[in-house]
Amino acid sequence: MKKIKKGVYDVPLIVSESLKRDYDGLKQTIISAQERIVEFAKRYNFLPLIEPSFMERVEIYDSQEAFKERLISFLNLNRNIELPKTISAVLENKVLISISSKEYQNIYPIEGEDRLGFERLLTHELAHRFHVRILDGNEEAMGPNWFFEGFAIFASKQFLNFTCSEATIWDIIKNEKQVAYKYYAAIFSYLTKEINLNDLIHHAKDDNFYEWLRERIN
Q1: I want to staple 184 with a disulfide (CB 3.0 to 4.6 A). Which of 24, 55, 133, 150 is the partner?
Q2: 178: domain range?
């Protein structure tokens, strides 16, 4: 796999037949997604952790049905498993499996309409792997669902325009509610204005994380 520059690689790509005409554009999107993670790493002083590559292959499918079929096969899941309705991409075992940009628009109309929406989707999956690397490979230390999804959303700059009340933010944090991703974007934007990101990352696993946050913001 050819290295283009620090943290950015020419990753082998497999696509559905109908996507082959967009092959070069998809290759560039994959490069741009990697560049986003590199810039994020620079901004928050994590650059030494950007290597080695988080991926060895990318697979992009033109329908969610084909994507789910491949995901079940690749991860050896029970064929009767009920995957989330909005599942769009997964990065496991150094293989990034994703739906296409057009299919992403069908699932997330507002985010998908943004010309950078699909690029951010791929960046989101890279961010999850980067998060684990920051934690020395300890996935159990990633914190509650709102936090590890919030981190990936924050790193990939998804749902930037969504806001909600502080009361809603604290309610989600305290009760660890699973809500739409746009709320996690608002939470992370709120927290990182007050608390150092590295501190947030390394305290997210704590049982008293909510109390720790309250002490630093109130």
Answers
A1: 150
A2: 143-218
